[in-house]
């Protein structure tokens, strides 16, 4: 029962990780630049994401522009697009596979099949967490390096947005869920290896039959 509860907890973490991963991929809040200027009425907030750039004005107007050209984008944005999409796909596969392999469900067949399904789902979650953690770290590094660069004007500098933090948290949830699922599958096998089943030794019937005869009658 404890293992089933732990798997259910890991499944909830994985669900939060999947939803956060999808939200971080689609949201344009990867880089944020607030240019207030001398007049608060004309304040502008610029947001850049993986797929679009948005501008929010203090007057209430909001406009977005899609990034149609892929080759014109920097390398870290192209890599972030690819890895975040792979992270979403792998995490979705992990949800489907672990639903079959969890002990609290009636799917998946026998215990060995369910353990294999849980292990495969845990591997998917771990890979999804790695694919989600790499672009957020790389993107944050580029933002910090540009922010500390003295040759770049202040108006062109940005700060990490909410999508970056969402990607970090989601990757952590997926990694934790993957480790829990993988460890729960080997718990039973490890216990069987440490405490092997007792073997019952039965005396040989042939020896018992020979023991009943006396050898003194034979020359």
From TrEMBL:
It is a multi-pass membrane protein. Belongs to the claudin family. This is Claudin. Claudins function as major constituents of the tight junction complexes that regulate the permeability of epithelia. Residues 1-20 form the signal peptide. PROSITE patterns: CLAUDIN. One of its GO terms (molecular function) is structural molecule activity. It comes from the Eukaryota. One of its GO terms (cellular component) is bicellular tight junction. The gene is Cldn20.
């Amino acid at each position: 029962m404890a293992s089933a509860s732990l798997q259910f907890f890991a499944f909830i973490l994985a669900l939060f990780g999947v939803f956060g991963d999808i939200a971080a991929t689609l949201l344009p809040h990867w880089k944020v630049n607030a240019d207030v200027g001398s007049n608060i009425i004309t304040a502008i907030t610029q947001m850049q994401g993986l797929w679009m750039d948005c501008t929010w004005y203090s007057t209430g107007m909001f406009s977005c522009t899609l990034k149609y050209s892929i080759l014109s984008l920097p390398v870290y944005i192209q890599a972030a697009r690819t890895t975040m999409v792979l992270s979403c796909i792998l995490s979705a596969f992990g949800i489907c596979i672990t639903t079959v392999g969890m002990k609290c469900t009636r799917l998946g067949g026998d215990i060995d099949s369910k353990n294999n399904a849980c292990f495969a789902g845990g591997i998917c979650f771990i890979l999804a967490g790695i694919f989600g953690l790499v672009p957020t770290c790389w993107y944050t590094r580029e933002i910090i390096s540009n922010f500390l660069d003295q040759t770049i004007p202040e108006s062109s500098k940005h700060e990490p947005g909410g999508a970056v933090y969402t990607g970090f948290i989601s990757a952590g949830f997926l990694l934790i869920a993957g480790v829990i699922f993988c460890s729960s599958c080997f718990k039973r096998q490890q216990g069987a290896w440490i405490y092997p089943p007792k073997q019952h030794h039965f005396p040989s019937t042939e020896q018992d039959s020979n023991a009943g005869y006396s050898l003194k009658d034979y020359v």
